[in-house]
Each structure stands twice: as C-alpha cells, then as structure tokens.
Amino acid sequence: MRMTAPRTLLRATVFAAAFAVSAVALAQVTPAGKWQTIDDATGKPRGVIEISEKDGIFSGKLVKSLAPHEGPPTVCDKCTDSRKDQPIIGMTLLTGLRKTSDNEWTGGEILDPESGKLYKCKMSLADDGRKLNVRGFIGISLIGRTQTWLREQ
To answer: Residue 65: how many CA atoms within 13 Å on its side-chain side?
Structure first.
C-alpha cells in the first residue's frame, strides 16, 4: 500500500500541471493583443494594430506605423465617414467582430486607410495563436483577400 500513495500523488501532480497548462493555453485563444501587419507587396512589417474586446465585440486600432514616412502624420484623406482627414495613427480600423466559433470572429468591418474603402471582415487564429488571418471582402467571403498578422511578444 505504501507504493500506491506516491503513484497517486504523482498522477495527481501530473494531472494538475496538465490542467494548468491547458487553462493558460485556452486563456490565450483570443485575438486581443498587439499584431504586426505585413505589407502584401514587400512582405515587410507595415504597422501594429492593437485589438481589444469590450462586451464580446472586438475592434482594432493602428497604434504604430512601421513604414518609413517623413513629414506630418498621415491622414485618411480618402475616408468617407467620420475618419475623413483624421490621423491614421490611433485610428480604429477593425470594428464589430464577434466570436462565432472556437476560432473565428465575424460580422465586422475593416477599413483600408489607403483607399478609404470599408470591407466586411472576419478573422481566425493560426499557429497556436501566434498568427491572425484577417480577411477583408465585398459581399461574400470568396471575393476578398486575406492578410496574416503576427502577434507581438
């Protein structure tokens, strides 16, 4: 009987450790955080978007530009809504995304500040939460493009 008590204790310790690790992993399965956007043409980092959640709705704003730029802050001169002529840094680009499955957030919009155009948007996590696939589209998801953003550490 003395041998079963250490084995039981060992099993309980292993189970508790596995449970703690899985709880931490589940807690991180969210798009909330800072994401580095990648330029489609060059493959180089373009900016940093900070995604936050309030009442189950996710939104994201541009907090930092990584593109070389000289002169005054760039404004969204092609925007047609309240963001017209507003600085792009600090601007909310993602709005209205809600969790629709274990790994998907849909129902929102994304703004392309270079063109001023609004697109429907959905996003999903990949690579254990280190990558975020963001898809902007017109009408149906088949007509659009996907960017992969990298989580900042």
So the answer is: 14
